[in-house]
Every structure is written in C-alpha cells, then in structure tokens.
C-alpha cells in the first residue's frame, strides 16, 4: 500500500514485478533477500523465474548467478531451479529441485559459512553484483528502508549492487519496525575495529537500511505472507535426544561450567530435533535464558511467551503457519524480546566466541573420532549446505551435534568409521548426541573418543561392527594417533551404495 512508501521519490518508481525484472539481463549476478522461509521477495522472484524461462524457451541461453542470505522460500527455490537458468548459486539451499540440479552438475553451488558471505562479496570474490532484489516492510519519509522478517545479507546487497529493486510488503506488521539492529561498522582489513556487542540484547546499529536512491530502479508492492516453515510434532527420537541434552546442561551447571538459571546464549539449527530441545527447556529449571542464533523457530516463541527465554537475537524468523500467526498477532509483546541483525553479525565468530555460545546443530553422520559430515550424503551428494553451523561450532563455548543414530528406517548408521566428507573436524566437535545417549569427548584423545562415541551414540545394531573395526585398527602395525584401516574406512558407505543398507546382515 502507498502508506508504506512514505517518500515521493520512491513512490514514483512503483512498477509491476514483470516490469521490474526487465532490469535483469543474462549474465547478471543477482543478489536477493531471504533467509530460510522469511523475507524472500514474493512477486519479483516468481516473475524473474518466468523471465528466465521465457528467454530460454525462445532460444536465449539466459543465465544468472544467484546470491542469497541462506535458503530462500521453497517455492522460490524450486521455481528458479526449474527455470534452469541459475549458473551459480551461493551460499545455501535446502530444496529438492535445486539439490537435484546441483547433484546432476547442472548448477554450480558454492557452499560457504554464512558469516563469510558479506565479506567475500565485498572482497570481490563473486565479481560485480548487477542487481539486488530486496524485500522491505516500508520506506520512510527520508528514504530509509524498514527491514522485513529477515535481514540476512540485505545491508550488503543494498551497498554493493549497481541497480536495486525494492519489494515493499505491507503484510509485515507495522510494529516490526524497531525490531532490527543494522550494524554499519564492519570494514575490510586492515580497517577493522572491535564489534562492541557484549550482551545478546545489545543494540549497536540503526533500525533501518541506508540506500542510495539513485540506484533504486524499481519499487514493487506486495501484500503476501512469508511461506511457512513446516514442522511436525517432536517424535520419541527427538524427545530422547532433547532429554540427553537437558541432562547434560544440568551436569554442566553442577560442575560449575554453566550459570545455573541462564546457562549461556543458545544457538540451535533448524528442524524438529532443535525444536524438541527448545520445548524441553520449558520444563527445566531455567528462567531468563538468551539465544544468539540465526533463526527463530516456533519453539522459541513459546519460550519467550512463558518467560523461559528473556531475549533472542537472530537474523530471521523461520516460523510455521501457526507461529507466524502467533507472532503477527502479538507483535507488540515479541518486539521487546527479539532483535534481528545482519547475518555477518548474528553469526560473527568474534561475538560467538565472546558471548560463549552453546552451539547445537544437526548432522548427517559423525565418525568414531568426532569428525562430522553435515552436508554430503554418502560423501558426494549435497543435502543442504554448511549454513551457519560452522560459524557457531568452531567458535562456541560448547559445540554439540545432534542426530538420530540411524536414518532411512535403520538402513544407515549415523556413526561410521570415517566420514566421507568433513564439515566440522574432531578439533571443533565436543559433544555428540543421538537418542541412544550423549558422548562428551572434551579432553579425550582419539583412541579414547572412539570407545565413548560408539558406546554412547551408535545404534546397538552397529556397535559390534564398529568396535571390531577399532580393535583391528588399533592392533594394526603403526596404528598411530588416530587408528584407521584405510582400505575399510568407508566400508559402511560402500555397502550402502552396493546393497541399499549399511547392515552387514539386512535381516537383523
Ligand atoms: O532425509 O528428508 O529424505 O527424509 O537427511 O534428516 O534426521 O530429519 O534431520 O532435518 O535435522 O537434518 C544435517 C540435513 C539434518 C541438517 C541435516 C537424511 C534423512 C532425511 C534429514 P529425507 P533428519 P534434520 C542452521 C544451521 C547443515 C546446516 C546447519 C543440515 C534428511 O541439520 O542441513 O546446520 N545441517 N545449519 O533420511 C544419508 C545419513 C543421514 C541421511 C540423515 N547419515 N546419510 N541421509 N539423513 N542422516 C540452519 C541454517 O543454516 C539456515
């Protein structure tokens, strides 16, 4: 609505989405807003997919390079992938069509730490950014932009792009303004200075984005809601994992390593396991917890509403339909407990280290020594990407990985002799949790770690074979610091590829 565009200069630039995408040419690098299910441009991106599809249908080899915050909404990701014109995608996706194009070698995909994206674009690693398409919730009288439900890399896109298309979404409640903290103090070396954020709720920036009006070529209006981030109710497995995590927190409090009421700021990945852990915190002895994470899920809203969580900082909302509804209806309450920041700040190693984050992320598999694969199924096929998990894991106070002990109806063991792709090394990973139990490998050498990981985390059906592997690896001549039988290290994966199961005896 015109009420959201309070600057005449910008109002004069209002056009349809179809007109706006004409500014995008073949070969362009296009940076769009969006982080998880929040803040993807709702009209311009489908129009862009159409624009690409039509150009290609008429014989043009129309391609663009696409930069985003993280994943964008699943419909958008699918439409763009189906148009077949994305030459390069960066830095994260989590959608089957895009994944298929990447694994077929038809889309180049660069999978990097989310905190690195802004600086790498500034450093010029991705060349010139031709067009930015950024969803905002309003434009002020003085021409500043009020951010939407995710911040992601939008500050950077607006700063670097030659041409800017704004999508102004009046579905976003007016009361969202002021929820954001946009920090303009990052610089490239050698001009960097400390980031003065010492508490989760600190505000170190401004509420709006700056934009050079001369570069804004089009403004498109919309009133479409964010897509919902689907969630299923926590099952017995995720509840068991959550139970082990909560027992561990109690143990750490008793040992004097975590503050009793408030623990330390929590970061948790996306998904049902993360949500189950959050839900479990409500029943614990905690009050006034904080979160310093990259997304806010439904579970977090509940914790804020019941006082378990005092404050949550992130770069995006990733809510289900019910969660979006709850958030929009009670925005005046939530705005006092939530801040959204650029992802270079929500995931910043300096801040993660300073605040002492408890990092909890999902994994595909871990090996007996604690190396973690979060991204590559059987070592070769991309699942989603590393996302922010590395930003938090390497720099966290406690770095934990959570997963069911098996996948695909028990055919796959999540604990394997050696991971065929490493996202998080044994030097970064401190705690591994499955529904079977929790392996705390802090302070343990590799030879001691393997026994703890197998006993505590592996599914009982795979334990004997894993123990047998380590026994023989340790007995081999010159076994070394981290014993392996190199000819056999991937035997679980090879067996799965050959027979469809990691089980030596599938009848088991
Ligand atoms: O496959 O979807 O076909 O059923 O992987 O597995 O158990 O539902 O777990 O949703 O927590 O995802 C690592 C992918 C785990 C996620 C990963 C198959 C399994 C299923 C999903 P289906 P689950 P989750 C914040 C931080 C990296 C990014 C990150 C992830 C599917 O946590 O992408 O942490 N992490 N970001 O069947 C083969 C195995 C498997 C396996 C599970 N060992 N081998 N397939 N699966 N284990 C978020 C952001 O950065 C935005």
Strand residues, percent: 15-25%
- Report the structural category: alpha/beta
N-to-C span:
62 Å
| Radius of gyration using CA atoms only | 23 Å
Q: Spans of 5+ residues with little confidence (pLDDT < 50)?
A: none
- Name every ligand kind in the structure: ligand 0RQ
Tell me, rounded to a whole number, the average pLDDT: 95
Please name the defining characteristics of this protein.
single chain, 508 residues, alpha/beta, 8-stranded mixed beta sheet, 5-stranded mixed beta sheet, 18 helices, 19% strand, globular, binds ligand 0RQ
Task: Indicate the topology.
Layout: H1 8-11, H2 17-20, E1 29-32, H3 44-57, E2 64-67, H4 74-82, E3 86-90, H5 96-103, E4 108-109, H6 117-122, E5 131-139, E6 145-147, H7 154-160, E7 163-169, E8 216-222, H8 236-254, E9 266-268, H9 272-281, E10 289-292, E11 295-296, H10 298-305, E12 309-314, E13 316-317, H11 321-329, H12 331-334, E14 338-340, H13 343-346, H14 349-355, E15 358-362, E16 365-367, E17 372-373, E18 376-377, E19 381-382, H15 389-395, E20 398-402, E21 406-407, E22 412-413, E23 415-416, E24 431-434, E25 437-440, H16 446-457, H17 460-475, H18 491-499
Helix pairs in contact: 3-4, 4-5, 8-9, 9-10, 14-15, 16-17
Bound molecules: ligand 0RQ.
């Amino acid at each position: 609505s015109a009420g959201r565009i309070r600057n005449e200069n910008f109002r004069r630039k209002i056009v349809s989405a179809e007109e706006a995408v004409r500014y995008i040419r073949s070969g362009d690098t296009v940076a769009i807003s969006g982080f998880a299910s929040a803040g993807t441009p709702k009209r311009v991106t489908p129009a862009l997919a159409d624009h690409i599809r039509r150009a290609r249908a008429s014989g043009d080899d129309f391609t663009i390079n696409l930069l985003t915050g993280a994943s964008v909404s699943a419909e958008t990701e699918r439409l763009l992938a189906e148009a077949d014109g994305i030459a390069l995608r960066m830095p994260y996706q989590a959608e089957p069509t895009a994944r298929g194009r990447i694994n077929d070698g038809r889309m180049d995909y660069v999978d990097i730490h989310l905190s690195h994206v802004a600086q790498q674009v500034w450093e010029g690693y991705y060349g010139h950014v031709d067009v930015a398409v950024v969803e905002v919730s309003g434009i002020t009288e003085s021409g500043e932009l009020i951010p939407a439900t995710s911040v992601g890399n939008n500050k950077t896109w607006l700063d670097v792009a030659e041409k800017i298309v704004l999508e102004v979404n009046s579905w976003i409640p007016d009361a969202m303004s002021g929820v954001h903290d946009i920090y303009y103090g990052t610089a490239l070396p050698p001009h960097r200075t400390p980031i003065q954020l010492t508490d989760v709720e600190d505000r170190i920036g401004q509420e709006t984005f700056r934009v050079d009006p001369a570069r804004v070529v089009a403004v498109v209006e919309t009133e479409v809601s964010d897509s919902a981030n689907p969630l299923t109710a926590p099952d017995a497995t995720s509840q068991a994992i959550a139970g082990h995590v909560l027992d561990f927190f109690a143990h750490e409090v008793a040992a004097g390593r975590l503050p009793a009421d408030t623990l330390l700021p929590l970061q948790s990945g996306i998904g049902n396991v993360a949500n189950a852990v959050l839900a479990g915190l409500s029943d614990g002895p905690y009050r006034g917890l904080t979160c310093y994470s990259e997304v806010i899920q439904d579970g977090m809203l509940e914790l804020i509403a019941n006082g378990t969580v005092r404050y949550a900082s992130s770069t995006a909302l990733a809510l289900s339909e019910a969660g979006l509804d709850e958030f929009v209806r009670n925005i005046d309450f939530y705005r006092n407990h939530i801040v959204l920041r650029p992802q270079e700040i929500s995931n910043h190693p300096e801040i993660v280290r300073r605040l002492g984050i408890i990092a909890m992320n999902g994994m595909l598999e871990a090996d007996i020594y604690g190396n973690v694969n979060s991204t590559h199924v059987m070592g070769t096929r991309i699942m989603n990407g590393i996302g922010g998990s590395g930003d938090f894991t390497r720099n966290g106070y406690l770095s934990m990985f959570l997963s069911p002990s098996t996948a695909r109806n028990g055919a796959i063991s999540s604990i394997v002799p050696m991971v065929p792709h490493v996202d998080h090394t044994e030097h970064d990973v401190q705690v591994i949790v499955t529904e079977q139990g929790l392996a705390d490998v802090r302070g343990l050498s590799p030879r001691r770690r393997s026994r703890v990981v197998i006993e505590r985390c592996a599914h009982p059906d795979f334990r004997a074979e894993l123990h047998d592997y380590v026994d023989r690896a340790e007995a081999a001549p010159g076994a070394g610091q981290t014993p392996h039988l190199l000819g056999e290290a991937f035997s679980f994966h090879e067996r799965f590829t050959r027979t469809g199961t990691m089980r030596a005896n599938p009848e088991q």
